[in-house]
Amino acid sequence: MPDYRKHTQAAVQVAAGLALNVFPAIFIAVYARIAPIDSQGFLALSLTVGVYIAQLFNAFIVEGRLATPDADHDLCLPWWVVVFAIASAAPLILGPPVASHAVLMISSTGVMSGLLMSRTIGVVSGRWQLEALAATVLIVAGGLALVLAQHHNTHSVRVLAVGAILAVLSRTWPRTQVGGWGMPPDLRRSSWVTGETAVVGIPQPAITSIVLGTIGPAASVAFRVISTVSGALEPILSYGRYRLLAHGHRGELKIFAALFFLGLIAVAAAAFGGFGSLIFGPAWTYVGAAALLLAFGWKVLMLVSTVPFAALRKAGETALVFWIRSASTVIYLILSIGFLLIWHSNTAVFAAFVVAEAITAIVYHLAAVKGAPEYSVDFAFAGRSRGGDDND
């Protein structure tokens, strides 16, 4: 395949991945215009928990298969995920626009599970045309929902939910042999992958709930908005992570890094250039510039740690990765909760995230040098050469 076509597909996949954030971002933006602050605060928590549970499903079904050597990667979306997403979205479509707390939690979980898993399978399978179609549907629905919310139209949430379901359905085909329940071939390995995802993902819902309980719903909304804006870079990180898992860093890393920094510049320019206020409306008034800058720095460090992480996972070191991620989670929780209780601000939380991710990146690098041969050859060679020269 010519390089220009490979680059085009990468750009389309990442752009389509950015649409994954449309549902939570527009959901928050809509509620900022039509719902009381208490409902906005609980929605922020619901979306965080929903994304967390979706990541667990995704880890067990998709990432566990990718971490299994010689497993069939010709995936399609399991039917039960489609049913779960549709059933979860139904109360948003058929019920009142300002839903109950229970509906918000269930709907966020089901819809995000469908969106995340269908998106991940699209990246792994390389079906970039379907990804572009799904992204277009979701973006158009999100834009229409936002316009309706600005006029306090009660159909805004319904339009957003319908768009999310159409995006999931558009990725349901073509069906492959690895369909049906989509169970991974190695349950033990998938359990390790799911366990590490559960451990590493817990800080976000834990911190969101603590922010909601200690500082209040406005701070909780701000934390979610900042996480959503900086999370616009997550599709690039996810795309790069899955490409590194499937193909290794050679031939992939330069494209990955270039896409990430282009995305970082674009997202930062949009956020500080007035687009954040345009989209999130009243919710943007709670966002601090320092906290947002720290969130961007946190994502840069996640780029750094992704490379040795993927190298270890690809080398089959699932147990080692689990223990590293477990230790990282403990560091995240201790620092972020400590910083939050001392300074009572979102800025302190994101500062803690930066420190914790820096420590994590160093640990991953040291482990990959020892446990991932391909990574060791490319990233430890210079150090060994200098050592050899010194000995000479």
UniProtKB/TrEMBL annotation:
Superkingdom of this protein's organism? Bacteria
Where do the TM regions start and end?
Answer: 12-34, 40-62, 74-93, 99-118, 130-149, 255-280, 286-310, 322-343, 349-367
Keywords attached to this entry: Membrane, Transmembrane, Transmembrane helix
Q: Can you say what this protein is called?
A: Polysaccharide biosynthesis protein
